[in-house]
Design a protein that fits this description.
By secondary structure, the chain is α+β, with helices and mostly antiparallel strands. It is built from 22 helices and 19 strands. It has four domains: about 160 residues, Orthogonal Bundle (Triger factor/SurA peptide-binding fold), CATH 1.10.4030; about 120 residues; about 120 residues; about 100 residues, Chitinase A, domain 3, CATH 3.10.50. The chain has a four-stranded antiparallel beta sheet. Strands 13-6-15-14 form a four-stranded antiparallel beta sheet. Helix 1 packs across helix 4 and helix 6 packs across helix 22.
Length: about 625
Amino acid sequence: MGIEAIRSSTQGLIAKMIVGAIIIVFALFGFGSITTFLAPVPKVASVGGNDVTQQEMELAVERSRQVMLARGLPVEEDRLRSGVLDSLINRQVLINQANDLDLAFSDASTDKQILTTEAFQVEGQFDAERFRQIIRNMGYQPLSYRQELQTDMKVQQLTAALSQTAFLTEKEARGISSLAQQVRDLAYVLITRDKLRDSITTTPAQLEDYYNANLSDFQTDETVDLSYIELRKDSLLSEVEVNEVEIRAQYEDRSTSYTRAERRRSSHILVAISDEVTGAQAKAKADDLHRKVLAGESFETLAKEHSDDPGSAVNGGDLGFQDAGVFVPEFEATLANLSDGDVSTPVLSDFGYHIIKLTGVEVATVTPFEEVRDRIDADVREIKAEDLFVERSARLAEIAFEAPDLRDPSVSLDLTIKTTGHVGRNNAHPVAGAPAVMEAAYLPDLLTDGNNSNLIEITPDHHVVVRVTGHSPSVQRSLAEVEALIADRIRDEKAADDALAQAVEIERMLKSGSITRFVADQFGVEWKVIAGATRSQGGVDRQVIERAFQLARPAEGGKSVGHIGLANGDAAVVTVTGIQSTDPVSVPWTELQTLARALASRSGANDRTEYQADIVTQADVSRTAAED
């Protein structure tokens, strides 16, 4: 989540309100057990004396696994764990570096970041229950999330110092722009692999040698046949019945969700009491400002010039619309008794003296039942379907565990037994294609012992139980079976090599002074000419264009020559006879700024990557066997 710019008002009234709100959240939902920090915790790595714990590792692995499963990606456990550990080590290196540089991110700014995160809001307002639910699903408690966020923000300061401070001078931007708009006069010939392969023959010895050298390429895929029963939450919606009494009761239970309390918009001028300003001095100044307001001077101007709350002073003292209970009691009590446009006498609080002006009132409103009835009806059905889904999932898991096959659970829960046919480890079947299903299918418990699987979560709303009904191990195909395939491979590889060899020879001949037409006739190819080709030229293989723009500027009346092997097995020879560049000065600087910003951003990203790689290389890192 990106950090927003924090105004200098973090010590003012609004900042105190924010800190108070977040402390209430932590008080309600817990800071986490302090004993967690006292017990010995196994570690998987140590970075500069700071441990990466087994607990951190397992949480990060599980989060990564869930993301991969949600995206339908196969989970390779060893690779997953190795990648996660590398990521945790790299992160700890950055944390150590940020600490060494004394970087910090204040508690108030962290709390404001939490309160302004859209994911934690309902109808534009921070919602404590939503916050708690989301971070719980991520494996955090409020305090641990707050600490993690604070650490991330501190690290972001470090990386941003590199990635966001790169820049290009105007001269550099103009030079790059000129190169980007450069056009070239070029010609090229293609030596196609297919044209050469038909003349290539293979011998039995070649076929056998290739076969023996690449045995793993000629094995059948291991497959299983699965039977399964599935339970989907959406299929249970039709069984749910909801009556009007339940809908009305839900509306009443959620009445606060459909009620918007009165909100008041206010501005204030704060005269703070401090070590330098006594209470009497502050009161005198506040009284003087109050008299000026009553005399007709602009409240907004006086706030900008005299208010000691910098966060609101820049906005003429405006504090925006707020619910009741946000401000300190003395402020709240005065604000509640003002009419729109009224200005209070100076009010004393712990911060000093406030002159308060009411600038707007949003009256309390209640959304009528009729407007939200259908939405509540859908919510109630969803809740009931969820309860039914959980109940039946538990029942399915219980029966499937005890049953010798899928017949009993299918009958008990009125579910249809379905089959997948032959499926390999990587397949697109809507059930068998799920990584968790394939992982279970090849366990000895299913593959060898013939048991039903445990309940498998395809998605949170889609559960299955599977059973292996057939297994075809991977077997080596005979040479006779794959002779034709091997012959094609050998001809393709030899033809690609021959095409590249011809391209090299054509380049040599051209550089030696041979005429292009003579070369074309000798090799049976045809030159294709493009005048004024751009870097994004269409209708030509991308690699040909890239090679053309890699060649040096030709001498007057001459040409630059190069060759390239193409990804499809063909080869090409490219010549450049002319280069035209735009005048770097001709493009207005305003038009170059977008390019300059993009290139600076890329340069900054490269700087950050190189810096991180450098400090990771230099860091004192030790790994332990616990990671396995």
